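Let us practice reading a record.
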Amino acid sequence: MRAAELAGKSPRRWQTTTIPDPNASRHPDLVERDFTTDPTALDSRWCGDITYINTWQG
């Protein structure tokens, strides 16, 4: 690799992207922290977090 002038790529260090505002108001907990599944209540609640999915845009 040295003869071909190639080098390995190291992963970037973790960077904090979200800084919470301590003065922000709290959002109401509409599902009351109940994330159990109920087959009879199809499409009653959806949740997910895609905050830290790497994309080509960064």
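A brief commentary: The chain has no helices and no strands.
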